[in-house]
């Protein structure tokens, strides 16, 4: 898809310099992995990665204690384990999981595009998302993080009209606009 977008940018009326990847949950993890691959292959440039409560690290699926109230609402530890096993099979949580499958496994994050990561304070992915954000910043990647107090996984989809959900969407839209100079 990234190749197609770049090759058809003119037909689409978009600038190749403003191509963004974005995703929520597992889609956020896939977006992060695509950013790693794009950086490594050096074929197509990304301007930004918008990662909304991204599912980044398969090791979360085997962690027996993510903390009080983490993963108790909507996306549970058992659902997470099932999803990673469906995606990776027996490799889930093991040492052979490649970063292109679980971006949280990447050791080198330098050269990735500017990033926004948003996650709720009660989301099972909070720790892995904050870890990834911290490592992005340590690699000098411009990174904005928003932790939404009291929010669980995909809270904004369950209550899209809630003030908290609207502020969350406003924040990540503003980050995207700033990066793209819109």
TrEMBL record:
<dbReference type="Pfam" id="PF07859">
    <property type="entry name" value="Abhydrolase_3"/>
</dbReference>
<dbReference type="InterPro" id="IPR013094">
    <property type="entry name" value="AB_hydrolase_3"/>
</dbReference>
<dbReference type="InterPro" id="IPR050300">
    <property type="entry name" value="GDXG_lipolytic_enzyme"/>
</dbReference>
<feature type="domain" description="Alpha/beta hydrolase fold-3">
    <location>
        <begin position="1"/>
        <end position="156"/>
    </location>
</feature>
<dbReference type="GO" id="GO:0016787">
    <property type="term" value="F:hydrolase activity"/>
</dbReference>
<keyword id="KW-0378">Hydrolase</keyword>
<dbReference type="InterPro" id="IPR029058">
    <property type="entry name" value="AB_hydrolase_fold"/>
</dbReference>
<protein>
    <submittedName>
        <fullName>Carboxylesterase NlhH</fullName>
        <ecNumber>3.1.1.-</ecNumber>
    </submittedName>
</protein>
